[in-house]
User: Which sequence fits this backbone?
């Protein structure tokens, strides 16, 4: 019995000790911090509405903006205005009357080798067969052509034989007369730009690229403006880069309007629009610059014929001018024949008659086509295109 009581007492003591240890460990652990107090929330000030004052207005002196000292700072940035493109100044070309006479000195410097050579040969005391052969060679070298050369030599033979004694003055007069017959003085060389029954006159300019065709068209516009005509230009050479720009520049210099189309566009359409525009504007002349790729291209010739047909839906062409490079000699005659088969050439423009050009080409090309040389170009100047005057031309060939 005592043993049971002792066991119970020991159990109670052990349980009490364990309970004390648990309570002590709990007391040593820190308690978590109390939660923070909730902040006081105040309502934001009410925003002013339209028409409300932000605060009560106060009476105080007011200053104008001129009286307020502004803080210093960088200078204001100047805004650049786009440049004003000024229209090109319109030039007044010199009159064309007697222009070839004024340019005679330039022509004679490069051309009178023909005349001087012939005069030297004809001045020999005895004109044997060898001398006459030299005269023929001189004429052929100057691109006069075989048949015209033979005709000229034959006439010279007869007249020299009749003349007998020959002074330099007589020889010069003789040669001048025969050359004038060869060149032709009774041919109408007027550029037809004034049809009697309508307006405007229509001129088409054709030729191979490189002969100065577009430049000649621009210079011809100057010739017409100098003579008091109003002009519209048609840039129908749509296949050569910058051809339209070049022609337009020429036109702007003298106040001529240029009709142009898209690059590589239809040339016939541009030509048609140019004539239409010219009629609506009431101008005197429409000049049409056409494409000029190699004359051996069949496509070009067909295209040229199309341009002519389309333009003639408005009115007949008054002039078809063929531009030839005077330095090309016989090749120029080949070009002339091909173009003449496609369009009815009415006149010739010979360019580059300065420098190495040979004046005999005037005779040869007229014989080849049966149409007159109407204009000649003597240089790169804007007013170096002149109406062809046979007397002034021959005088330049044989010199004073």
Assistant:
């Amino acid at each position: 019995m005592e043993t049971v009581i002792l066991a119970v007492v020991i159990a109670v003591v052990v349980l009490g000790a364990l309970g004390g240890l648990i309570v002590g460990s709990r007391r040593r652990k820190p308690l978590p911090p109390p939660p923070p107090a909730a902040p006081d929330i105040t309502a934001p000030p009410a925003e002013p509405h339209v028409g409300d004052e932000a605060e009560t207005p106060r009476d105080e002196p007011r200053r104008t903006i001129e009286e307020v000292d502004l803080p210093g700072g960088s200078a204001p940035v100047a805004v650049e205005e786009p440049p004003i493109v000024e229209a090109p100044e319109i030039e007044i070309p010199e009159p064309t009357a007697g222009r070839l006479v004024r340019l005679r000195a330039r022509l004679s410097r490069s051309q009178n080798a023909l005349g001087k050579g012939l005069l030297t040969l004809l001045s020999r005391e005895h004109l044997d067969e060898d001398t006459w052969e030299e005269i023929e060679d001189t004429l052929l070298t100057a691109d006069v052509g075989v048949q015209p050369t033979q005709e000229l030599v034959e006439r010279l033979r007869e007249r020299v034989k009749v003349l007998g004694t020959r002074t330099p003055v007589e020889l010069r007069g003789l040669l001048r007369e025969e050359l004038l017959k060869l060149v032709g003085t009774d041919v109408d060389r007027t550029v037809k730009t004034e049809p009697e029954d309508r307006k405007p006159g229509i001129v088409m300019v054709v030729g191979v690229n490189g002969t100065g065709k577009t430049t000649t068209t621009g210079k011809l516009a100057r010739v017409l403006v100098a003579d008091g005509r109003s002009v519209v230009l048609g840039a129908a050479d749509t296949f050569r880069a910058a051809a339209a720009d070049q022609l337009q520049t020429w036109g702007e210099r003298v106040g001529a309007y240029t009709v142009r189309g898209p690059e590589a566009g239809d040339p016939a359409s541009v030509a048609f629009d140019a004539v239409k525009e010219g009629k609506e504007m009431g101008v005197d002349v429409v000049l049409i610059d056409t494409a000029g790729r190699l004359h051996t291209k069949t496509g070009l010739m067909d295209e040229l014929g199309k341009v002519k047909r389309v333009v003639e839906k408005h009115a007949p062409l008054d002039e078809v001018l063929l531009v030839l490079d005077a330095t090309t000699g016989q090749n120029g005659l080949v070009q002339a024949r091909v173009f003449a088969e496609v369009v009815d050439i009415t006149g010739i423009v010979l360019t580059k008659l300065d420098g190495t050009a040979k004046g005999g080409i005037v005779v040869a090309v007229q014989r080849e086509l049966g149409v007159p040389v109407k204009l000649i170009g003597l240089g790169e100047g804007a007013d170096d295109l002149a109406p062809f005057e046979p007397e002034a031309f021959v005088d330049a060939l044989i010199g004073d």
